[in-house]
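Notes from hallway chat w/ T.B., transcribed later so I don't forget. T.B. wanted the structure written out for a chain they're using in a teaching module, and asked if we could keep both sequence and structure tokens in one place. Agreed to drop them here.
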Amino acid sequence: MSNFLQRAITGLLFVTALIGGIWYHYYSAVLLFAITVLVGFPEFLKLSKAKHSAGLLINSIASIVFWMIVAIEKNEYINLLVVGYFIVQIIRTVFDSKSDLKQISKETFGLLYLNIPFLVLLSIGKTEYTYEPWAMLMIFFMVWANDTGAYLVGRSFGKTKLFEKLSPKKTWEGTLGGLVIAMILGYCLAEFVFDWNGMIYIGAAFLTGIAATVGDLFESKLKRQAGVKDSGNILPGHGGILDRFDALLLAAPVNYIYFSLLA
């Protein structure tokens, strides 16, 4: 199988599973996000050069409990989880000779880095009375439009490097092209498909494009520091989970703040 065909099949299956999982039901979206976090956390440990010690087990259990709480919508229990996590990490630091503050800090940041974006995505799509999967999927569409636009415009017209030290292929021309295409898609989908306020989604797409680029650069820096090309190999031809979600992991929180301020 050629590399192109492998990438195409993997990409199609990935997008189908993602859209289907979010669209089908709130609980299928929760399950999808929980699996993504659990698969992505070991990748983050590798990129941050954190030791695969008890922290992998502790943080995986914390993530599982967290998403169980989200699923049953008992958000008051999150406070208990946070306090319990704090206590466990203090005890572990004292008695586990392989753990230190640097190790704990990396793990805790990784836990937040992976869990918060998907939590706020659910907050965008779930109100007290309804579940609106298209509100969440819209953010994915804008991220993908930005990435695709940046790639196509950058490949055709890109000359001025954006941040060569971290990502040699990124250019200012491609970045601006991605922003424009994301804004056009955001406006058209909002205005003509979903009957939403198109001007609001021009703003959302603009912020999404900037956040997606910074999120991609963040992961590029982690990979360069770790000396690896991809965060993992779970997706043949595409790398790891973090390689596919790096842009979204910053774009989702930025959109959450944007829509919260508008509300």
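Follow-up for T.B.: Residues 3-262 form one domain. Might be a good example for the class.
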